[in-house]
Amino acid sequence: MTTPLSLSALDQLPQSVETPGYRRDDLSPGILHVGVGNFHRAHMGYYLDRLFELGESHDWALVGAGVRAGDSVMRARLERQDWLTTLIELDPKGLNARVIGSMIDFVDVDPQSVIAAMADPAIRILSLTITEGGYYVDAKTDGFDASHPDMVHDAAHPDEPKSVFGMILAALRRRRAAGLPPFTVMSCDNLPENGHVCARTVTELAQLSDPDLALWVRDNVAFPNSMVDCITPATSDRERALVRERFGISDDAVVVCEPFRQWVLEDNFPQGRPALERVGAEFVNDVSKHELMKLRILNGGHAAIAYPSALLGHHFVHEAMADPLITAWLSALESREIIPTLDPIEGVNFASYLDLIVSRFANPEIGDTIARLCQDGSNRQPKFILPTLADGLRGDGAIDGLAQEVAFWCRYCEGSDEAGNALPPNDDNHEMLRRLALASRQDPQAFLENRAVFGALADNPRFCKSFAERLTLIHEHGVRAAIADYLGSGAI
User: Fold this and answer.
1) Backbone angles phi, psi at 243, to 5 degrees
2) What Pfam families does the record point to (predicted)?
3) Which of 105, 121, 322, 383 shows its CA 20 to 30 Å from the CA of 338?
C-alpha cells in the first residue's frame, strides 16, 4: 500500500519519512529557478528546505521554470504532488527520506510566462541549472558563440526569445523600464567561473541587439560564481520502486543522492539573499580556488576512472572502485599530477579531500553508472582534464598519467570494450571521435587533430609523445598493463 505524495497526504506518511515542519502558506517567492532537474532539487532545494525548517528566510521560496519541451513533463509531475519532492539520501549506514517543500510554484513552460515571472519584483534571485553545455560557448575560442541559431534568433527577436538568456534580457528590460532593481543571476552549473561565463553570455547577447542594455547589465546585474557538489544519479524505475517499497510513497519525481553536499558562493547579492550559511553553505569573497579543487579532483577523478572502467566492463561506479587497480590508478594520478596543479586553500587538506572523494565514489548505495561518467567526453575533457594537463606542461610537471587518461578516452571512442562488447554512442560527436580513434591505431596523432577539443595541446611535443606511448601501450598490452606500468608495478 502506497500513498501518493501531496500536501494533504503528509500526515499519512510513515514516521520514518521526514516532512516539512513549516507551513507552506507561510512561504513567499524570492527565487525563480530555471532547470528543475534532479540535482537542483537534491542541492539547492534541500538547502532551502532545511533553512525554512529553522524558521528563517521564508520570503525566499522557490518558483520553478523551464525553457525546453521536456520541462513540461517535470512541471506536470510536480504539479500533481503540489510541487513536493521525496529526496532519498543514499547513506551506506541507512537510507534517509525527506519530503522537500521549498518549491511553491512552477511557471508555465512558455517564454512569455517565464519572462513575466522573472519581471515580478518579488523575484530577487534568478538561478540556473541548465547543464555545462547550455551557455553558448564557442568550443574553438572558448568565447561567446554568437553564431548559434538560438543566439541569432534572440538577437533578431529580443521580445520573442527562445533561450533562457534571451528571456533574462527581456525581463531585465522590463524591470529597468519599470524602475525596478535587477535580480541577481546565480548559475549553479558545474563549470569553471560559472558566474563569469553566465555574465558573458547575457551581456554579449544584449550587445547584438541593444548595446545600451548590455552596458546597463554590466553595471547593475550581479553574477556571483559558485561551486556546487552532490552526486545525484538519474531517476529510474529502481529509484521509483525504492521509494514505494522502502517508504510507502508513490512519487513520480523522486530524487536520490549521496549524503554529502557542498555549496560555496561569492557573497554578491545586491538585492539580498537567504541565510544559507545557517545550513552549511559557505560564502566567500573568491570561490575560484574551491571551484578548481572540485573540478580537478572530483570531476577529473570521475573522468580518470570512467574510460578504463568501461573498457574493463565495469557497470557501476562502486564496482569499479572495488577493483584495486582502478582505485590505485585514481589515487596515484590525483596525487602525482592533479593535486600539484592546485594553489593552497586555507583550512583545506587536499589529501583528506581526496580520501573523501574516494569514499564517495565507492558508496554502493548510489548506483551511479560508469556509462554516465563516460557521457559527453568532447565537452567534459576540455573542462575537467585538459586544463590540468596544460598547467602540468607549463610548469614542467608530470603529465604521463593525464596523457594516459586521454589515451583511455581515445580507446573508448573506438566503440568497444576489451572483451569486444559494443559501447553505445554517448557523445554528440561520436561518429567523428570513432573515426579519429580508429585512425590513431596507425597514427596516434590523428586523435589529437580534433582541434575543437585539443587546440594548441595537439602541437605540444611532450604531450604528443607521451600520448602516443600510452596509447600504444594500451593497444598492445591492454588497460590493466597500462595502469600497472604507470603505478610502477608492471612487467612491460
Assistant:
1) -70, -30
2) Mannitol_dh, Mannitol_dh_C
3) 322
Q: Coil, helix or strand for 58?
A: coil
Contact 95, 153 (CB under 8 A): no
Q: Strand 103-106 to strand 226-229: parallel, antiparallel, or no bridges (unpaired)?
A: unpaired
What is the dihedral sign for C-alpha 7, 262, 38, 124?
A: positive
Domains, the chain, in order of start with CATH, read: 3-285 (3.40.50.720), 288-487 (1.10.1040.10)
Q: Minimal CA–CA distance to 311: which of 488, 480, 469, 425?
A: 480
Q: Mind listing the pLDDT tens digit for each residue in 400-415? A: 999 999 999 999 999 9
Residue 421 neighbours by CB under 8 Å, 6+ apart: 313
Share of the chain above pLDDT 70, in %: 99
Instruction: Write out the E strands in 253-342.
Output: 255-257, 262-266, 282-284
- The separation between CA 10 and the C-alpha centre of its own chain, rounded to angstroms, equals 31
Whole-number Cα distances in Å, 464 to 148, 393, 436, 473: 32, 11, 15, 14
The H or E element spanning position 326 is: helix 324-333
| Residue 138: how many other CB atoms lie within 10 Å | 13
